[in-house]
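User: Hey, quick favor. My workstation is busy. Could you predict this chain's structure for me?
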Amino acid sequence: MQTTTPVKKVHKRFGSPSDRIFDTLNVLFLVCLAIVTLYPFVNTLMVSLNDASDSIRGGIYLWPRQFSWGNYHYVFKEATIIHATMISILRTVIGTVVTVFASAMVAYTISRPEFVLRKFVTVMFVLTMYLNGGLIPNYLLIRDLDMIGSFWVYIVPGIIGVFNMIVIRSFIEGLPEGIIESARMDGAGDFRTFMQIVLPLALPALATVALFTGVYQWNSWFDVFLYNSQKPDLSTLQYELMRMLANSNSNSSMTAGSAFANSGNGNANYVTPTSIRATMTIVASVPMIIVYPFLQKYFVKGMTLGGVKG
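Assistant: No problem, here it is.
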């Protein structure tokens, strides 16, 4: 009996010269895009790791010319930095959890067709995205609520994010109605349905909103300047870094050269506004860069599915 050797079929896509050319150009384009995207961050990191007085000469690209921890020593030598970092972490965690949960509750409420005022409430929320009382009315409101000089001024004013609520609402409206109806037939109330059915299914949208809110809370410093500038124990990392950069700019303007010395333990450590700015960028970015990979898959899914309905 004659046996035949099976012939492996070559996919047409790999056999076509035009397709191979397209794939090659596509890979080259994506590689160039990755380089253009990553280079500014890598260059900033190298400047922060280079000796500040040497950085004035320029020419630092992908590797520090004179490696030094002096910039980071200057940033973290302040006793307030560690405490401010803890306040930033605390406001980021609490603010993100509270905002996501409150926005999800409102989103679930206005997503229910039996809620007769849902269109009116939605319009009222959306109007707040375009109409704002301004800085002075907001400040007077915070003052009348007796939140100036308190930690909760970081949490309460942004407890409901309209954009976040719309993202979660759109995602919830895309869920099968039969799942919610079956939970009600089993005797679950609205809150139990929300906690045990809707929240687990809406995890991609919640992760997306959590990333938005976390980045905002971590990077925010203007509210500290407005409401808690006289409370050093409530200062945040971003506000302290902003003050440090302002001091470095003023100190450098009072010296003859572009770098100024910061004495510590008998040694002169030269820093410049450029080196401090690069160091601050890395210090402020690293926590978000560490968190993002854990939320990336939920972030992409939440943005695609949550944007199906308006």
